[in-house]
Amino acid sequence: KRVAILISGGGSNMVRLVEDMQAQGYAAPVLVASNDAAAAGLEKAARMGVPTAAIDHRPFGKDRVAFEAELLKPILAAEPDVLCLAGFMRVLTPGFVEQFAGRMLNIHPSLLPKYPGLHTHQRALDAGDAEAGCTVHEVTPVLDDGPILGQARVPVEPGDTAETLAARVLVMEHRLYPAVLRRYVAGDRTPVLL
Ligand code: GRF
């Protein structure tokens, strides 16, 4: 299976996905693309021998469709079977999502359906939740919605800040996403629960 990964920043989830694919030999990372040419993850991908592309979203202003038309060019050229969003911070239009219906994944740092959107860890702390975590789901036109393919839970500890909780969740993201992708490319939709 040919897998393309979209990132916006450090790409720590992308790195773990590529490492797992290369170690297990079950899929090929055909592209890592970012909406920011300065994304540190692009350099990491290049060092791992993965082709990269960067399409800066800023020149397009509010014209999401125009930005996505540009972003689609390197993605379609790579002919991916699966598209993984990994720390990708741009909202994608239904038109873009529909082109990858049933073959696009995203990782979100909360136990969906709780806390779609941003600032998930602070919201969990503010709500006094005893647990937090992350979710891998199929991407649908509704933001942070879609069939859940995996979840990992972590305890909220006394004195946790959004930063300490985010760090604890990120460790689980790095375990969850590769486990989900392995099943996904094998056609297995049984949720991974960690
Ligand atoms: C992290 O906050 C992670 O929880 C979320 O995206 C952010 C960056 O992840 N998935 P990455 O290091 O770029 O993969």
Rg calculated over all Cα atoms:
16 Å
* DSSP strand content: 15-25%
Uncertain spans: none
Query: Bound small molecules, which ones?
Result: 5-O-phosphono-beta-D-ribofuranosylamine
- Helix vs. strand class: alpha/beta
Q: Please give the count of helices.
A: 6
Q: How would you describe the shape? A: globular
Q: Give the strand line-up of the largest sheet.
A: 3-2-1-4-5-6-7-8
Q: Major sheet, described briefly?
A: 8 strands, mixed
Whole-number mean pLDDT: 97
Distance between the termini: 25 Å
Q: What is the number of E strands?
A: 8
Order of helices and strands: EHEHEHEHEHEEHE
Helix content: 25-40%
Question: Which secondary structure elements does this structure contain, and how are they paired or packed?
Answer:
Blueprint: E1 2-7, H1 12-24, E2 28-34, H2 40-47, E3 52-54, H3 64-78, E4 82-85, H4 94-99, E5 104-108, H5 120-126, E6 131-138, E7 148-155, H6 162-185, E8 192-193
Parallel strand pairs: 1-2, 1-4, 2-3, 4-5, 7-8
Antiparallel strand pairs: 5-6, 6-7
The protein binds 5-O-phosphono-beta-D-ribofuranosylamine (GRF).
